[in-house]
Write a structure and sequence with these properties.
Structural class: alpha+beta
Number of strands: 4
Shape: extended
Radius of gyration: 18 Å
Number of domains: 2
Largest sheet: 2 strands, antiparallel
Number of helices: 5
Helix content: 25-40%
Length: 118
């Protein structure tokens, strides 16, 4: 997955939509919202137009999602800055929180370095 043993041990499993029920897990989902989305075809979006603003795309080379290689994505977001994390999978923000935060902060601040107030 791209996570070290220590990172897996420290993982906050409360972030998962699972609840322990004594001898098994149950999944915590908003069934009404999911049913509405499926019945009314809200899951499929037909995108048109182009976003002309700046976009930051952070992705892990080992991720199952190959968004960094998706030319169709870049067609709709031509001003994309792509940053690939060589040793990361999908959860970059959990495995490399410092580097992730640094890249996002730098992008938002247009490259200028700022000190945290805290």
């Amino acid at each position: 997955i791209g996570a070290t043993k220590e990172q897996v041990i420290k993982y906050d499993f409360d972030l998962l939509p699972l609840e322990w029920k004594g001898d098994s897990f149950s999944v915590k989902l908003n069934i009404d919202v999911l049913a509405d989305a499926i019945i009314n075809n809200k899951l499929q979006q037909y995108i048109s137009g182009t976003f002309e603003g700046d976009v930051l795309l952070l992705y892990g080379k080992k991720s199952q999602f190959k968004i960094g290689l998706d030319d169709e994505f870049l067609k709709y977001f031509p001003r994309t800055t792509k940053i690939e994390f060589e040793n990361a999978a999908h959860f970059i923000h959990q495995v490399f929180p410092k580097e992730f935060t640094q890249e996002v902060t730098s992008f938002i601040n247009k490259g200028s370095v700022t000190q945290a107030k805290y």
